[in-house]
Amino acid sequence: MNVAGAAGGAAGRMPTKRRLPSAAASDPHRLFEDTSAARSPGLGPPSGGSSSSSSPPPPGPFLPDPVSSFAAAYGSSLATQGKELVDRNIDRFIPVTKLKYYFAVDTVYVGKKLGLLLFPFLHQDWQVQYQQDTPVAPRFDVNAPDLYIPVMAFITYILVAGLAMGTQNRFSPDLLGLQASSALAWLIVEVLAILLSLYLVTVNTDLSTIDLVAFSGYKYVGMIVGLLAGLLFGKTGYYLLLSWCCVTIVVFMIRTLRLKILSEAAAEGMLVRGAKNQLRMYLTMAVAGLQPLLMYWLTFHLVH
Known about the structure:
About 65% of the residues lie in helices and about 0% in strands. By secondary structure, the protein is mostly helical. It is globular. It starts with a helix and ends in a 7-residue tail after the last helix.
């Protein structure tokens, strides 16, 4: 036997070494083989199986169509009923529909109304216009009361008061809040006093509480004019212009309220003599005379 044969026989008898996969060869301590590469990158079944037979069916709707339609209709009806209930309760305590009337203004009306408040001597016709027993909107009649000018005048008055306190180095948020709350409290007291007086005198009038708030709020226009004059020209300018505004607001209130409080006498074209009409006339004069007192009380301490 030659050497080659012996070597071949020896090689045949030696045990052969099993080759590990490349991943196992790189990490000899791994316990299991990674078979995830044999599948597709997604979460589907292996490539050898059929995806149509093993995939779950698509989810159906949460509720059947008739049930979901009924639930939607029921929810819509509940929302409608809730809205109607809220609207009814709001109208009971806050007359939103009436408030819309008092804010129905435009730029032309605001300009004419401010001119009427500052120069009432030039105005002749003070009657409020009506259309089918309903007063027309303020933007169509300068004699109609509104809430836009009183609200904006009140806010402007607070801002001018803050400016006046700032020029005197005594501005503080607490003082400004006290000024605003004081002005609002006096307005509420004034309106309540007028309502009580009308009740005691038993006046049959179409004046509402909102009308009284509007008429009482017009004095803030004159207060703003007086404060601005005080800031620009000192106390002399303040007293001059505030006195003018006090006279104009008295004239405005008398000519406006006498058609409301003395409606029966005004309808006849002359004042009817009598105790009740005298009381009504005194009440009108008292309401008009109260305006200058409040105007001075709420502004004199802001001018130095």
